[in-house]
What does this fold into?
Amino acid sequence: MVKSLLITYVLWALGGPLGLHHIYLGRDSHALLWMVTFGGFGIGWIREFWQLPKYVQNANIRYQKIQRKRDPQLSMKIIRPFGQFVVGVYFGIIALLSLSPLSGFYIMVLPLAITLGVHLVANVGEETSNIKATMTGSFVTSIIFFGRPIATVPISIVASVVSTQHRHYKTPIDTADNLSARLYRLGLAWLAFTMPISYCIFHNTTVTITYITDTISFILDSVRIFPWVSGLLESILLLPYHTWKLSTGGIGLTHGNTQEWEKIFESISAIQTDRERLAYQVLGLHREATLEEINKSYRELVKRWHPDHNQHNLNEAEQQFLEIQAAYELLNKKTSYE
It folds into this structure.
C-alpha cells in the first residue's frame, strides 16, 4: 500500500513519541527505538518533523520495489554515532538499575545491554551494522572496567565507534511480514525492555541512587571547562524536578520512594554550588567578590598563564588557561544574573 504523507503527519502528531508513524511506514527498528526512549527523549520526535517527507518517499520506493543506485560510500552524520552513545548509556543505566544483582553482571549483562542499545540505533533506516563486532568491542571494554558502574560510558563509546566502523546497507527483503507479526515482535521487545524498568521503579530505587548520582557527577565534571554545555545539561536534568515542584506547589518529592529521587536532584544542585566554589579558588577570590574584582583577577591570570607567554611550560599553561576561562565565564554569568 502506498504511504500517505498526510497520514504520516497525523500519526506523528498523535502518537509520534510511541513510534506510530514509523510502524505505518514499516520502520520497525525506528519505532522500537521511539517506544523505549519516548521519541528519542522528545528531541528526536520534534527533529524528524522535517524528515517525514523523505521517510514516506523511501517507504514508497520499498513498496514499489524500485531499484535505486546507492552510493557505495555511506555518508557520515554525527547524529547517528552520538545517538548510539546516548542510547547505549541509557540501556546500560537501565541494566544497572534492575539487573546488577545478577552474577556475572559486569562481564555479560552490562555489555550485552549496551550493545543492544547501540545496535538498535545503528539499525534505523536503510543502514545497519555488524552486531558481532559491536558486541566484541563491548565485552573487551567491560573487562577493562570490570566492577565499575561508570563502565557504561567507556563501553558505550567503544561500541558506538566499532558499530560506526562496520556500517553497511541493509539487504533488501523481497517479502514483508504482515502487520500482526510485526506488532507481535515489537510488543515482545517492548515488554523485554520495560519489565526491568518496572522492577527498578518499585523495588530497587534506594540501591541505585548512588550510581545515578555518581554518573551525573562524572558527566557534568567531564564538560566543566565548557560552562554553557554544563549549564545546559544541569538545566535539562533538573527540569523534571522543577516541573514537579511547580505542579505540586513546591512540596517536592517527599512521599514514599520518591524522596530517594529528590536526593538525585539535590546532588545536581550541589554540583553547581561546588563548581562555583572551585571557580572562586581558581581566580583566587572570596565568595563575596564583586564583578569588578572578578574581571581584574581574570585579566591578571590570563596574562600570566597565556600559552604564548609560557612556551617553556606549555601543557600546564594551556590547562590553567582553560580553567581560568571556564571559572570566569561561570562567575561572570552568575554575577550578571544577580
